[in-house]
Amino acid sequence: MKKLLSKKRILFLEYLENVRGYSDLTIKSYDASITKALEFIEIISEDEKIVFNLMPYRIHIAPLNAKTISRNLSAIRSFVSYLNDNNIQVTLEADDSVKVAKTLPKPISHKYILQAINGAKLKEKLVVLMLYTLGLRISELASLKLEDMSESWIRVIGKGNKERDVPLLDATKEIIDEYLSSFITKKFLFEKNGEKLSENSLRYMVNKVFRDVSLKVTPHQLRHSYATALLNAGAPIVDVSELLGHSSMATTQIYTKLGSALKQQNYNKAHPLCGVDE
Fold this sequence. Notes:
Blueprint: H1 2-18, H2 24-40, E1 42-46, E2 49-53, H3 55-61, H4 66-85, E3 90-93, H5 110-118, H6 122-134, H7 138-142, E4 153-157, E5 163-167, H8 170-182, E6 191-192, E7 195-196, H9 199-211, H10 219-232, H11 237-244, H12 249-256, H13 260-270
Parallel strand pairs: 2-3
Antiparallel strand pairs: 1-2, 4-5, 6-7
């Protein structure tokens, strides 16, 4: 299928040049967008139709700015329109399901996370739990080695190769043990063909787990949920900052977007004059 689509891509570029009269620069831009997209798009054959599931690709390009994302998706839609006009019926799936975040992602309620993982497969469940109970970045999870894990702690290699130790919940350790008894890994916790599993593959698993319960959740939202839950439960911001691997507490405070009500509550508890009878 991908060989056929590759041939059609070339014909589409010729169509843009000879029929539509697009410039060389525009054609190169279309070529780059479509070629990259075909690496990530999930292609499903259904009867005589083809379905392009854009979700893996949209997750891959989500860090880009809104203008770039729009341009890439426009190229895909134009290519699909060309295919449909040339007797290859293609339907787009997840075409509008992922939005470009303009603000920090909202934390996910604990009950919804539990609902999602209750129906997840073992590996997918572990991916979600590692992000949610350890507050890891997706890059940190992808690079997590077996040698960095103990019975009660995980040593995380963060940005700038900074190391931090994060406590491992007993419930998460039980799932890790169950996973390691079912899957053979040699170096990394999540592997494929002896190499660490890609960040994109891990993102896709997170997306799939929550999509099955009609939610749109990213790995970063799980990290955000972890931090918010700790702070809302009264954990000192200095400890949360260390657990997240932030270089300063200011980053943690911005990241978690503490509500004014919680700030007032903490202030009332902490200040020596609060609660003093007049």
